[in-house]
């Protein structure tokens, strides 16, 4: 099949990675209407949906759902971390040290922190990244340390 | 202001919670078009977008983004865990032991596993939940252990 793919195609295999290797994403702005749309569907709480009531919340004003920050961060990681056959994560520790607000511009810095070749399956390994999402002030709004399946280069390629 | 809120209003304060307390959500089906729409916006990878190519992926068929499972799980948690002033999470460990597929029906079981009153701020505490997202076969597709700010009942209420 030949068609224009909407997704980036990665090229890095397990043997191309090293501890400390870094990847930097482009920037993406979080728009107010998208913040409310996401929250309305997936995180319908007053501090994500109503400016007036949000002023009395812990955030002090309308804030994006942490899951919206996570989803946008994933988009930026998919574009900037070019692992062959994509990013399939088993999970990891996630935290939101600061909230994201409408109008903020996010970018993601990803760094390879662990590389563990599989003992039972010689065609792959598990790589741990440290992915920091920063806002336009350079403040960290999310840290996620996913464990990702990374493939070795096929012998016949 | 009086208007119909689209969000649930919680009533439980820190002193209403106990270790082992459980909350069970309703069920929600993951539809194919929503799976593709979410992935197209936030996780544009071939195994989330193209049935034919997904057959050759680790998933074996088109699978939902883990962040879509997380977002839908949040919706179910917001509806089923009625903490006063809502659910504001600082983060936690998340894992996806199995993929979610279009047509799957998810529900979330949440359990209180830790209650830590704040030493510096007497009006609140930090509560850790264990939130398991299950599919229609009873298989665990996500485990998330969020740390959530929970408020004490105001003395004047």
How would you summarize what this structure contains?
Two copies of one chain form a homodimer. Chain A contains four helices and six strands, in the order ββααααββββ.
SSE topology:
The structure is a homodimer of 157-residue chains.
Chain A: E1 22-24, E2 28-29, H1 32-42, H2 46-49, H3 51-54, H4 66-80, E3 89-95, E4 105-117, E5 124-134, E6 140-151
Antiparallel strand pairs in A: 1-4, 2-4, 3-6, 4-5, 5-6
Structure, explained:
The structure is a homodimer of 157-residue chains. The first copy, chain A, has 157 residues and is of the alpha+beta class. Chain A has a single domain, classed as Thiol Ester Dehydrase, Chain A (Roll). Chain A is built from 4 helices and 6 strands; from the N terminus they run E-E-H-H-H-H-E-E-E-E. In chain A, 37% of the residues are buried. Chains A and B meet through helix 1, helix 2, helix 4 and strand 3 of A and helix 1, helix 2, helix 4 and strand 3 of B. Strand 3 of chain A pairs antiparallel with strand 3 of chain B.
């Amino acid at each position: 099949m030949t068609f224009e793919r909407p997704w980036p195609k990665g090229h890095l295999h397990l043997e191309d990675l090293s501890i400390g290797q870094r990847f930097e994403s482009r920037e993406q702005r979080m728009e107010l209407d998208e913040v409310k749309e996401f929250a309305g569907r997936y995180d319908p709480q007053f501090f994500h949906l109503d400016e007036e009531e949000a002023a009395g919340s812990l955030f002090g004003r309308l804030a994006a759902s942490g899951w919206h920050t996570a989803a946008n961060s994933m988009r930026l990681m998919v574009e900037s971390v070019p692992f062959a056959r994509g990013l399939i994560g088993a999970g990891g520790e996630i935290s939101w040290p600061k909230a994201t607000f409408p109008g903020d511009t996010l970018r993601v810095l990803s760094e390879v922190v662990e590389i563990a070749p599989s003992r039972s399956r010689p065609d792959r390994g598990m790589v741990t990244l440290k992915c920091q999402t920063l806002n336009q002030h350079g403040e960290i709004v999310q840290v996620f340390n996913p464990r990702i399946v990374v493939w070795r280069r096929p012998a016949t390629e």
